[in-house]
Design a protein that fits this description.
This protein is mostly helical and 382 residues long. 52% of the residues lie in helices and 6% in strands. A five-stranded parallel beta sheet has the order 2-3-1-4-5, sandwiched between helices. Helix 1 crosses helix 3 and helix 4 crosses helix 14.
Length: 382
């Protein structure tokens, strides 16, 4: 595995730039690379993919800093109070984010601009930008490498995506877990200061909206639950929509998803305690989010159960809009229905797995998460 200095040097040579801005990224980069080497679970392809991803993120950071150097007025952009989608993964949060992305009065983070925010998008070419085709090609490659992945999540280069890649520009995100089991990095991430990552998150949002009329952002990433204080330092007016589902439907699906994304990048099967480790992470994230709610933050949250989205999600979205103080117009509702009908859960087939194949005891899992299931009472069949 390459060292951080080697990866930084390659990124600078590739970009033809040297300024990486605040050095906050360096500690996370070191933890990521050292952790992957210590884990010994990444095969040759996995090591190359991780290294290429690190170089690519640094190139993007170099380019972001270059745009700010030439256009310091970007920093004067106002980020309107955003709505963040939270909740456990596999709870319908991705589908909800895609529905909200059908409203042109708000701004979603699209997959192509998340991966390539520079040069900043231009309204004149927003729907024809060549990065859309490049992102589609990259997604097709992922489909070849991990064919099970597209059966589990709706993906499109022009569709909304999680904002974890913006945090990754500061190397402080669980996003890297999709590549393989890296416990050293996870341990570092659990105790690091996330403030710089959210400040860089905002820095990229300002760049992306620079040439556009200011609209409120609709963002989403379940791991934000683990770092709400840092998020709220940067976005003090943020509000949250939290999706819910029976934990017995969530954790096995999360483990299966990570199994699929890392299958060809690791040296062998998942570690025997991989599922338990995932459950521990999401338990911690949930407890932190609920503690924030109970400490006076409850009015920032709107809850939607998985079953409320089926078969028709519009009533639940209408309630969300009413809570936001916004009007869900007939035109936007029709666009949302069209997306929903065009993207059934089994559009790309089904991915079959069992909790038992990952060593998951559902009774023990429900007992571990009783604090959550009892509070939100998600249907055991949903």
């Amino acid at each position: 595995m390459s060292t951080a200095d080697e990866v930084i040097a390659e990124a600078r040579a590739k970009a033809g730039l040297t300024d990486l801005g605040d050095e906050s990224f360096h500690e996370g980069l070191v933890a990521l690379l050292d952790g992957a080497e210590a884990a010994g679970t990444f095969n040759e392809l996995g090591t190359a993919v991780l290294r290429d991803q690190a170089v690519g993120l640094l190139v993007t950071r170099l380019e972001v800093e270059d745009w700010y150097a030439h256009h310091p007025e970007i920093g004067e952009q106002e980020i309107l109070p955003p709505l963040f989608g939270l909740g456990l993964p596999r709870t319908g949060s991705t589908a909800l984010g895609c529905l909200l992305g059908e409203d042109p009065r708000a701004r979603s983070l699209l997959a192509w601009e998340s991966g390539s925010p520079t040069p900043p998008p231009d309204p004149a070419t927003y729907e024809t930008d060549p990065r859309i085709a490049a992102t589609a090609a990259a997604m097709a490659l992922i489909d070849q490498m991990a064919p099970k992945f597209k059966t589990m999540l709706p993906t499109s280069p022009t569709g909304p995506t999680e904002c974890l890649q913006l945090l990754a520009l500061d190397f402080r995100t669980v996003m890297f877990g999709a590549l393989g089991d890296n416990r050293h990095y996870e341990a570092w991430l659990a105790t690091c200061d996330m403030g710089s990552a959210y400040r860089y998150h905002e820095r990229v949002l300002k760049l992306l909206q620079w040439k556009f009329p200011t609209r409120p952002w609709r963002l989403k990433a379940p791991p934000h639950m683990d770092s709400l204080p840092a998020l709220l330092e940067v976005y003090p007016d943020a509000r949250f929509v939290m999706t819910h589902r029976d934990i017995a439907q969530v954790i096995p699906s999360v483990v299966s998803l990570l199994d699929a994304t890392s299958e060809y990048l690791r040296t062998g099967p998942l570690a025997p305690d991989f599922a338990a480790n995932q459950a521990a992470y999401w338990e911690r994230a949930l407890r932190k989010a609920l503690a924030y709610r109970d400490a006076g933050g409850e009015d920032r949250f709107f809850d939607i159960g998985f079953a409320e989205m089926r078969p028709d999600p519009i009533p639940a979205v209408e309630r969300l809009y009413a809570w936001l103080g916004e009007d869900l117009t007939d035109e936007v509702a029709d666009r949302m229905r069209a997306w929903w009908e065009a993207n059934p859960a089994d559009k790309h087939g089904t991915h079959d797995y069992t909790p038992e194949q990952y060593g998951i005891d559902l009774d023990e899992l429900r007992a571990q998460f009783a604090f959550y299931n009892d509070r939100f009472a998600p249907s055991p069949t949903a």
